[in-house]
Amino acid sequence: MSSNEHAAFREIARALGARFAGDSTPDDEVSETKTGEERATGGSVTPFPTAMTRFAEPASEDPNAAVSATLERVPGGVMVYRGDSVLFANSHLLAMAGFADLPELAASGGIGKLFGGLVPHERKINGAPAILTAASGHRLSVDMQASDLDWRGAPAHLLLIRDAVAGEPGRERVALQIADAFAGARAADAQAVLDSLDDGVITLDRNGRIIGLNRSAATTFGLDPREVVGAAILSLFAAESAVAVLASVHCIAGSGQTVLAQATPDVIGRTAAGMSPLLIKVTPLAGRDDGRMVMTVRDVRATRRIEAETSNARQAAEYASARKSDFLARISHEIRTPMNGILGFADMMLAEPFGPVGHERYRDYLGDIHASGTHVLSLVNDLLDLAKIEAGRLDLTFAEVPLNDVVTHCVAMLQPQAMRDRIVVRTSFSDDLPMLVADERSVRQAALNIIANAIAFTEAGGQVIVSTTMADRGEIALRVRDTGIGMTPDEVETALEPFRQIAVVASARGRADGRSTGTGLGLPLTKALIEANHGRFRIESRKDEGTLVEMLFPPQAAVRTA
């Protein structure tokens, strides 16, 4: 470095309270001369004479005020930056780059504007020449020294910048080589992105000549990109498609950058597989004023085959769903009529309007017939509701629903069952819960299913806690927690699938083979009902520790009462 630069770094070090690199002895080491005067020993930072105190800056709340004042006096360009933001630039640097002040430099793009995206502190060679772009667009060859410092309590980067010495073409050549290498790396990255696309991409000049191809285009046409560069675009297409191709290319070339991509009808291309129908689209190359264009090429047959397969699959799924819904609706009707008759006759016989049944065991049988018929009807109703939800045909009537009242009614209905099984049911309802906009029937059915499940899978002496509250994200939450048998993550996933049941510990309320007496539709149907009301259904469970079920309704479904 020059003597001026050496002195500048010494002054920066003094202002920062640090030592200049290369000093090996403390600054306070002094040696007395024969006259008794104290002088700084070799290598230490020489104190400034008292006469220079006129440069002292006034007191400021800015902890970097003294440093800024020192950097402003450095005989060279100085800049402090963090990330892409320029924090400080002295007047020498601003004049060198052609900016009036720091805000103008920041508004123009800061670091990205000055160095064209090549981050200074990531340069491998500190002190190597670099290219600085001035406000006018003129490029300067500069020398840089990079360092780190703390600025306003956070790490930042310090640059000392000066013009490259005039008459040193070698240094300027190295700077240009670095800039060209960076530009080449960016071009290679862009080409790699183009080569990863499934569509063919062809770059054209304003006259329709080929400049480049990506890998997909080269494969489609069976060409080596080096062989086709400079050829006319018409060489890739059949003669009968020349008019359509030229029309799209000339439309873009003659209309400037404001024209949107122009799509043409199917054209015939000279592909590696022979004459093939292609769909082409021509777009002006953004950011260029030399008339360059980009043509994308897509195989029409492959695209339409995929679209047809997707459409057929969607239609098949919709048809299957509709058939299933119609089948279940018909089965439901066929089962309901005779089952209602069975239940009616069983009720009448239990009432004994025409005389006693005779034997007490017959009355027990009639009770079992009635319970079984009710269970079958419940199963049919659940199947029909689940099919309607999957087909999007469930009739929902959205209105303001007082969730606390609905849940209170559900708990009251199931309280006798909990008392018989010696289970404590506790409730905790939020007093300021807003009205919920939902379908009351489906919300009540979902709450009944979850509370009944919690009671069914909790052993005697356990607890079931039912609560309503506002969740963290403003959602209305209905939570049911139990101290029952719990489930593993795999069992939770199984329980949420229709007609799937998990093996549970046999109890007085379960079957002798250790499996529950349910149909396997409770949780899937409840989840579907909650989602049909635009809510979320979530289960957290641990084996032998209990289960927490949350039904969360979005805040937009809540209506605050006046």
Largest sheet, in brief, is:
6 strands, antiparallel
Q: How far is the N terminus from the C terminus? A: 76 Å
Radius of gyration, in angstroms, nearest whole number? 41 Å
Mean pLDDT: 76
How many domain regions? 4
Uncertain segments are 18-60, 256-263, 505-519
Query: With helices defined by DSSP (H or I, 4 residues minimum), what is the helix count?
Result: 15
Condensed summary:
This protein has 562 residues and is α+β, with helices and mostly antiparallel strands. The protein folds into 4 domains: 57-188, Beta-Lactamase, CATH 3.30.450; 196-304, PAS domain (Beta-Lactamase, 2-Layer Sandwich); 307-391, Helix Hairpins, CATH 1.10.287; 398-559, 2-Layer Sandwich (Heat Shock Protein 90), CATH 3.30.565.10.
Kindly describe this structure.
The protein has 562 residues and is of the alpha+beta class. The protein has four domains: 57-188, Beta-Lactamase (2-Layer Sandwich), CATH 3.30.450; 196-304, Beta-Lactamase, CATH 3.30.450; 307-391, Helix Hairpins (Orthogonal Bundle), CATH 1.10.287; 398-559, Heat Shock Protein 90 (2-Layer Sandwich), CATH 3.30.565. It has 15 helices and 21 strands. The chain has helices spanning 3-16, 65-72, 91-97, 102-108, 111-115, 169-195, 215-221, 225-228, 242-253, 300-351, 360-391, 403-420, 440-456, 489-495, 522-532, and strands at 30-32, 38-40, 77-82, 85-89, 129-133, 139-151, 154-163, 200-204, 210-213, 262-263, 267-271, 274-284, 293-299, 398-401, 424-429, 435-439, 463-470, 476-482, 536-542, 546-553, 558-559. The strands form five sheets. Strands 8, 9, 10, 11, 12 and 13 form a six-stranded antiparallel β-sheet that branches. A five-stranded antiparallel β-sheet has the order 4-3-7-6-5. Strand 1 and strand 2 (38-40) form a beta hairpin. Helix 12 runs parallel beside helix 13. The longest helix is centred in the middle third of the chain and has 52 residues, at 300-351.
